[in-house]
Design goal:
Layout lengths: L2 E4 L8 H10 L4 E6 L5 H11 L3 E4 L3 E6 L9 E6 L3 H8 L3 E5 L5 H10 L3 E6 L11 H10 L5 E4 L2 H10 L7 E2 L8 H9 L2 H11 L6 E5 L8 H14 L4 E5 L5 H7 L6 E5 L6 H7 L2 E4 L9 H7 L4 E4 L5 H4 L6 E4 L4 H10 L5 H12 L4 H17 L1
């Protein structure tokens, strides 16, 4: 069985999944991606992993209509065309085609699968909430384009509900658990960070003696960091020794630095070298993600793999699978200030050590190897039909 995955963009976290798929396929896993949409580091790792099975294309043309500055879903329509893509797909002559969603480069893969009677799987992550502003024409387009799909490869329950109820694909088979974070190395580094090293970093940051909450993500409106910071002063009136560490860059960084410069309990560190990120996971007590819109939010399973309790927004598409209230953390509504404050307070009355153990156990179901195995089994089932 030869599999071709058409994925113009992806991050480092996907490489272990592709590596395992290639092993399961006995060297018959191929991937087509875009040079413009992937970093030099990602492309190097991909070539090191797949060799000539990695097909990197350049010269993508795109046309954008709408607000491309906003990072909320459906703010803009981006039409992409990759010269030579159809020919590249045809040259691989795969038994199974996997596309990323319905748009982008997916139509070329779908067209090839239909024309040459190949099996078609679709990797899909969106939820009904993320697609709440999707225009009717886009939903209709997806219903039509998705008709030939033999199997959906999805992240979780909320995506399944959207495909079933929002787009009408109730009868198309789906397999959940196809998303994963590459968190093994991060978790190992955290476990090797000594008590003395932790204390040194805590002194360097001048942290107070209370709980330390950690946010890692883009400093943009979609991530809800403004909503979290807006209520922090109320929180420390009740818990004056608590700390909030904010790591990430984005258009809001400078504005928020200036706005909260006088708050000694808030530490806005900006971008941190990924190789040093584990140190901040190591010293935090709770990881918090107040996102206003996300499909899965990979930093949450990263934090869980490091043994951290999590405070997770209900607008993160992965909350259903990843976070169990009072087991490994708490869910909250970042658009409701009282919900944020109540959740921050709950961790002062919880067994954080026990929650951290539960986080590790839950995250262990979403490793790259397990995601690859699920994807492979779905493809094999489709191939044998």
């Amino acid at each position: 069985m030869k599999i071709l995955w058409i994925s113009p963009w992806f991050g480092n976290y996907r490489i272990p999944v592709y590596d395992q798929l290639n092993k399961l396929c006995k060297g018959n896993f191929y991937l087509i991606c875009s040079q413009e949409n992937t970093s030099d580091l990602v492309r190097k790792k991909l070539k090191d992993t797949l060799g000539t099975n990695a097909i990197i294309m350049n010269g993508e043309k795109r046309m954008t209509m709408g607000n491309e500055v906003s990072d909320f879903a459906n703010s803009a329509l981006v039409i992409k065309k990759q010269p030579g893509l159809y020919k590249a797909i045809k040259n691989v002559n795969a038994d199974i085609i996997i596309t990323e969603g319905f748009g982008g480069w997916a139509p070329a893969g779908i067209r090839y699968a239909v024309t040459h009677r190949k099996k078609l799987c679709m990797f899909y992550e969106r939820t009904a909430y993320v697609e709440r502003n999707s225009p009717k024409w886009r939903s209709l387009y997806r219903r039509i384009v998705g008709i030939p799909v033999n199997h959906f490869l999805i992240n979780g329950t909320l995506t399944e509900e959207y495909l079933n109820n929002g787009l009408g694909f109730k009868h198309t088979p789906k397999i959940k658990g196809c998303m994963s974070a590459d968190s093994f190395g991060l978790a190992q580094a955290v476990s090797s960070f000594s008590k003395e090293q932790k204390e040194n970093l805590q002194r360097e940051l001048k942290l107070n003696s209370g709980l330390t909450f950690l946010f890692v993500g883009q400093m943009v409106a979609r991530k809800g960091i403004s909503e979290l910071l807006a209520v922090w002063n109320q929180h420390i009136q009740k818990h004056p020794q608590d700390n909030l560490i904010v790591i990430g860059k984005g258009v809001l960084e400078e504005k928020l630095r200036q706005q909260y410069a006088s708050e000694s309990s808030i530490h806005i560190l900006g971008a941190i070298n990924y190789d040093l990120l584990y140190q901040y996971y190591a010293i935090c007590d709770v990881f918090i993600m107040p996102t206003l819109e996300d499909n899965w939010c990979l930093v949450i399973p990263e934090a869980m793999a490091c043994g951290k309790p999590v405070a997770c927004s209900i607008y993160n598409g992965g909350h259903y699978e990843l976070v169990q209230d009072n087991i490994n953390g708490f869910k909250f509504d970042p658009l409701n200030p009282d919900s944020i404050l109540q959740t921050l307070d709950k961790f002062h009355h919880a067994d954080l050590s026990k929650m951290g153990v539960a986080s590790k156990e839950i995250e262990s179901n979403f490793t790259p190897d397990k995601a690859a195995q699920r994807i492979y089994e779905a493809c094999l089932k489709v191939y044998k039909k």
